[in-house]
Amino acid sequence: MVGEEGAFVLGWDEVLTDEELSVTLKVLCMSEEEFKEYKEQDGWEDDSEEEENSTLSNEALSRLKTPCKKLLYDSVLLTLESYGADLKAEQDLLNNQEAYEKLSRREQQALHVRYGQKRILHQLLELVQ
What we know:
By secondary structure, this protein is mainly alpha-helical. It has a single domain (18-128), classed as Alpha-Beta Complex (set domain protein methyltransferase, domain 2), CATH 3.90.1420.
């Protein structure tokens, strides 16, 4: 369901791998009985048109059912824990010109990438709280 990368791609305004995330959330949040029915039907063949027209925008994420929100929230917390430093530490380093200039060009670029990723994850936390 998640694809080759084993991760979902989030943007500022929507989930870029929305179909994968949508199906994954549906499957992980269904009851055992619903899952059996899902397996017997080989998925949701009759819902394909509805899913093609729906994207997981930030607004749509905030309207998810509570179990899906909780699953996303907990997943984001686990992802944030995998980083060495928190968002504030990254922001402090970006704001400290002297310390920032001591970093190699590659370290500076990595810092910007991590900071951006963390900001998107924190935004997602707020959407699904």
